[in-house]
Design brief:
Order of helices and strands: EHEHEHEEHEHEHHE
Structural class: alpha/beta
Number of strands: 8
Helix content: 25-40%
Radius of gyration: 16 Å
Strand order of the largest sheet: 3-2-1-4-7
Largest sheet: 5 strands, mixed
Length: 212
């Protein structure tokens, strides 16, 4: 596989057996063909290992199992395994729309690419049904000042050159929450962000989620 065309997608999962298949399948269903899915099972104690075993014969999927260490360690472990030029993130309880990568890659392949390309979300409930999604102001360019007041960059919609994430050191493993916010703030001091105003991911609201 031509790694110069490859997009790596990191999914960190812990006890998400009821949702993780939908997340991984949404990555593999991208219209853009050059995909690898890196799934890090952070010590799940449910049926996650059995579900992920179904991908054993798919060369696009790499499954890494580790003792439970938290989402920052799991995501960094996934990043270390990525081979692609670009990286995205699809959390185990969320899902991507099929044309997400195909929509985001053109500006990243331009002569002066942004550091992050991101889009909008559609909320869904625990059963996968669409629910009302509030409109959120989002911005492009050097967004550090605006970002300091609110994290308006949805994690699961982002596509980032792997070199940019490596340059800022990946996720801060001293944090347990707001790890994407911290990453975006650090990147924003060095690079432009580009918002494409279309839905690119479905974000699940359910009682067991960490952000809830």
């Amino acid at each position: 596989m031509d790694e110069n065309k490859l997009v790596s997608v990191v999914t960190a999962t812990y006890n998400m057996g009821h949702y993780v298949r939908e997340a991984v399948d949404s990555v593999l269903a991208q219209t853009y063909p050059h995909i690898e899915a890196v799934v890090v099972d952070d010590g799940s104690e449910d049926d996650t290992p059995e579900i992920l075993a179904a991908y054993a014969d798919d060369p696009r999927v790499t499954v890494i199992r580790q003792d439970n260490a938290g989402q920052t360690v799991a995501k960094n472990r996934g990043l270390a395994a990525c081979r692609g030029r670009w990286v995205g993130f699809c959390d185990a309880d969320n899902a991507w729309l099929p044309d997400k990568i195909a929509t985001q890659l053109p500006p990243l392949e331009a002569e002066n690419p942004p550091g992050v390309v991101y889009g909008d979300l559609q909320f869904m409930d625990g059963e996968g049904h669409d629910i009302p999604t509030p409109a959120v102001p989002r911005f492009s360019g050097r967004i550090t000042g605006k970002l300091l007041t609110d994290n308006f960059v949805p994690f699961n919609t982002c596509l980032v050159p792997r070199a940019v994430i490596e340059e800022v050191g990946g996720f801060d493993e001293s944090l347990s929450m707001a790890i994407d916010y911290d990453l975006w703030l650090r990147i924003s001091t060095r690079y432009d962000f580009l918002h494409i105003p279309r839905v690119m991911a479905r974000y699940r609201h359910w009682e067991g989620q960490m952000s809830h």
